[in-house]
Amino acid sequence: MAVPFGPKRVVRSLTYLFWIVAIALFAMEAWNSRFAMTWDGVQYLDDADLYFRGDWANAANSQWSPMYAWVVGAFLHLLHPSPYWQFPVVHLANFCIAIFSMAAFQFFLSCLLRSMRGRLGSIPEWTVVVLGFSAFLYTTLDFTNLSVVTPDLLMHAFVYFVAGYLVRIAAGERRSLDFFVLGLLLGLGYLAKAPFFFYSFVCLGILLLVLKRQGVAKLAIAFAAFVLIAGPYIAFLSHYKHRLTYGDSGRYNVVWMLNGVPYYHWQGKQAGSGTPLHPTRQISTDPPAYEFATPVAGTYPPWFDPIYWNEGAVPHYRLGELARAAVGGVKLYEYWVHRRQLALLAGLLVLMLAVPQKAVLARRLIENSPLLAFGLFPFAMYALVHQDSRFLSSFFVLVWMALFAATLEAQPAILTGVVRSVVIVVGALMLVESITTAATPEARGPQDVAITGNLPNPDWEVAHQLNLAGIKAGDPVAIVGNHLPYFWARLAGARIVSEVLLEDPPCGGQGCPEPMTARWLKVKDALAATGAKVVVSPCIHGVVDQAGWVQLGTTGVFAYRF
């Protein structure tokens, strides 16, 4: 006799199907971006090298969290890729992190489903699975995106684990072990990305409101476990920074994003911004040029430790600046929801409007408020300073699932068919969006525009040509900034020690070359005095057509050897 295709088997089959689709899409997106790199990514790779060399003083960095550097460093250390394959190995690490993140999401979803049993009535559990995986797949592939070399995807995995325990505890499962594991996960999340420090206290605060006095002892267990993981790193960081700190990225994002202090080469000219204690050293004012060979490590020291170079900046929380940031944040959130997650929004509104007893829906929303509050907090936090979709990927999912869970629990049995139809349509539309996102190559980045020749691995090609020209690992180089990202320097093993900023369009743009020629001749000797063996520049009229410049292969990038 045939085994009936029951509800549990449907859920299990759909889960397997989503896993297969997700792995395929993750692999596609990672492969399409295998040679891509980001400015932040270079810093994490540099930090990984320092950790694995045991250079603790330079590895201690209050801008970049450590766990992603450890993970990427482990892949690089174990596989020992050549420069050509270094960035693809990083994207292999991102692929594995995406699988880990999906396992974390699966844990969260299982906790949510368990909390909903007995409350769904005739609404099948597979509707929750379809909505959950649809939101997870799209936000991971589009908002976080495997092409981006940052720790956000790793952090979101811990968000899902923590959210699972939050749901489990709020639903009544309150073993001491659950609180201990929750605390460990909060600590690991902080190691993945510093904002988790705040998320941890929000999570514990929400649970304190849920459990009230009888939960204090067990929340103390969670807090102790958090300190067990986070404490040693805070002590390590504070020791090398000579002050108590859990990280400085939040404070300095206010300085950069709200107060208008520049990311690079701040010289203290902005009124009221403070006085730099040790800025990069300006070696020319026209054109502006800077030297930064010491004391900071990294391929590009100004961004490897921007906290050091900007120390002395004073953050100001001005109401007008905060209000402008909040208005911009709300508009951006509206765009991300209305333009990029429209199927989820439309499906939720249809299902909410279909609920005949709105009081039941309100009661279900209140019951799901712990998860909803945890999911909404980061939106409020980032709205006041700086918003980026990669920061919020998992939190979108938590908000969607809290709202959908309450709405599905409030549906009467008579609307089961309507619910099924809506969920199928939403799932299908979001799956199409996910496939389209993964299959679409990233838009041409700035390095692709500056490096010509339609090369498959453009940064390696520049690095390779420099190595052929005699540049070795550790050699100091100078750059002409603005148009050519320095990812090639990481692959060449070179260390950027100075740069000149020439505000001019690249070759093919409009502009008179004569002023550029005069500015280059004026700054050339100053760059040579920084110890740089070569200057690397994108194609700028009036500069690279002067004597001594040679093109690096067919890259459209030029070098001047001192």
List keywords for this structure.
7-stranded mixed β-sheet; 23 helices; 2 domains; 562 residues; disordered N terminus; mainly alpha; 62% helix
Describe the fold and architecture.
It is a single chain. The chain is mainly alpha-helical and 562 residues long. It has 2 domains: 351 residues, no CATH class; 169 residues, no CATH class. The chain is built from 23 helices and 7 strands. Strand 1 and strand 2 form a beta hairpin. The longest helix has 34 residues. The relative contact order is 0.11. The N terminus is likely disordered.
Short synopsis of the structure:
The chain is 62% helix and 6% strand. With 562 residues, it is mostly helical.
- Ranges where pLDDT stays below 50 over 5 or more residues in a row are 1-5
The helix/strand order is HHHHHHHHHHHEEHHHHHHHHHHEHEHEEE
Strand segment tally: 7
Total domain units: 2
User: Globular, elongated, flat, extended or rod-shaped: what is the shape?
Assistant: globular
**Percentage beta strand:** 5-15%
- The percentage helix is 55-70%
Measured distance between first and last alpha carbons: 83 Å
Radius of gyration: 26 Å
Task: Give the strand order, joined by hyphens, for the main sheet.
Answer: 1-2-4-3-5-7-6
Number of helices: 23
Structural class, from secondary structure content?
Answer: mainly alpha
Sheet with the most strands, sense and barrel status: 7 strands, mixed
Average residue pLDDT: 93
